[in-house]
Amino acid sequence: MTQDAWADDVPGGAARPCAHGPIRATFLQPLDKLRGRPAGQWLADFNEMRELGIKEVCLQWMQLDGISFADLPGAGLDANTFLGPVSEAASTAGMKLRFGLAADLRLVDVFQSDAAILAEHLAGMRAASIPLAEAILKAARASGIFSGWYLPEEIDDASLADASRRAVWLAHLKAMSDSLPPHGGSVQASLYITGGLGPQDAGQFCASAWADAGVAVLLQDGFGARNLADPQQISGYMAAIDAAVRAVDGQWGIVIELFEQLAGSPINDQPFRSATAPMDRVERQIDLANRFPAAIRTSYAVSENMLASAGRKARSLAKAYKSLYCGAG
User: Fold this and answer.
1) 285 phi and psi angles, rounded to 5 deg
2) φ and ψ at 224, to 5 degrees?
3) What beta strand segments (E) does 92-175 contain?
4) What does the DSSP assignment read for 289-302?
5) H helices within 52-96, ranges in order?
6) How much is the pLDDT for 329?
7) Are the C-beta atoms of residues 103 and 153 closer than 8 Å to each other?
8) What is the phi/psi pair of residue 5, to 5°?
9) Residue 229 has pLDDT above 50, yes or no
10) Are 103 and 58 contacting, i.e. CB atoms less than 8 angstroms apart?
11) Residue 250 lies in a domain
């Protein structure tokens, strides 16, 4: 990767960005504990991410279980405690935001329900997401930080294993894409693999999502969540998706998981718990992603696993990453 013009522009007092970093985007989960966080801390985090070569942060959702995080000034929504400071930090650091829409983590079991029940659930998500998108776009466009949308349902391949549910998902993606206000950005969704759907069918789903709805599907690589124990298995899915999507001149992507899951489904029935992954494993993930140069590369999640505010292991991973990819010790 060659140094680009973006790497020469260093706003907000940030250090010069990593010109050769393979990861250029990451996810950030809006959570209640982040409301009211000082603007200076957000700016420090965004400047750190920029130094690592991150150009875009995807806010995974803007409404979670019915609670809004879309508090941009002038949007007529909640008090300005989360998105306002985040947007200001992104703008100052010269970075873009991708906006997730409505998510409901209380009802994920519906993904394996009858197709009619799934369709009803997804229609409810669209009804919540479209007015949210309209309010966000009005404010975000004015600040120049908008890069596109993320549909936060996180599709699992077990849901797609049934042909009728697969048709419901494709219809949902198309209805969402068609209903979003004109925006000039891109639309992404994500998929994770547990073995419920074969590589060729997964590839065809991603190709159809692009051809029918203009949605780029991001494949979670599964190294952190351990959805597939054998990296060779996930590489087979990547190859099939890459071939199918390129055949329709489309886009797809890979989510590089920067964590190591310690507890929670599918490991056990305890609450989710994770630790920062070691650099040697992340390097293997990046090497795998590099086999597919046309794929969008994003990560989950730099904010929790590579910033100083996330602790010693995160600082260690960031240092090793910069040493390997950015020419910094």
Assistant:
1) -65, -45
2) -85, -45
3) 96-100, 102-103, 146-150, 155-156
4) HTT-TTSEEEEE-H
5) 83-93
6) 47
7) yes
8) -60, -35
9) yes
10) no
11) yes
Read off the pLDDT band of 277 (50, 70, 90). very high
Residue 281 domain-assigned? yes
Q: What's at 205, amino acid-wise?
A: F
* 5: confidence class by pLDDT, cuts 50, 70, 90: very low
User: Residue 155 in contact with residue 144, Cβ under 8 Å?
Assistant: no
Q: CA dihedral defined by 88, 50, 30, 25, rounded to 10 degrees?
A: 130
Residue 3 has pLDDT above 70, yes or no: no
Q: What is the DSSP letter of 228?
A: S
What the block records as the tokens of 73 is: 């000034």
Which among 152, 168, 231, 170 is positioned nearest to 206, based on CA atoms? 170
Residues 98, 148 contacting (CB under 8 angstroms): yes
Residue 98, φ and ψ in degrees, nearest 5: -105, 135
Contact between 71 and 61 under an 8 Å Cβ cutoff? The reply is: no
Bridge partner list, 59: 28, 99
Whole-angstrom Cα distance, residue 318 to residue 130? Answer: 37
Total number of residues shown for the chain: 329
Q: What is the pLDDT of residues 10-22, one digit of tens each?
A: 454 456 788 879 9
Determine, yes or no, domain membership for 197. Answer: yes
Report which of 53, 131, 127, 140 is spatially closest to residue 99, judged by C-alpha positions.
140
Contact between 265 and 226 under an 8 Å Cβ cutoff? The reply is: no
Residue 2 is predicted with a pLDDT of: 29
Write out the residue range of the structural domain in which residue 168 sits: 5-324
Rounded Cα–Cα distance for residues 18 and 322 (Å): 7
Does an H or E element contain 63, and which?
strand 63-64
Q: Report the 10 Å Cβ neighbour count for 211.
A: 16
Q: Residue with structure tokens 């639309």?
A: 187
Q: Structure tokens of 26?
A: 């990451």
Instruction: Indicate the number of domains in the chain.
Output: 1
Tell me if 199 is assigned to some domain: yes
CATH number of residue 135's parent domain: 3.20.20.80
Q: Write the DSSP assignment of 122-135 as a string of letters.
A: HHHHHHHHHHHHHH
Question: Which pLDDT value is given to residue 266?
Answer: 66
State the Cα–Cα distance between residues 206 and 200, nearest whole angstrom: 10
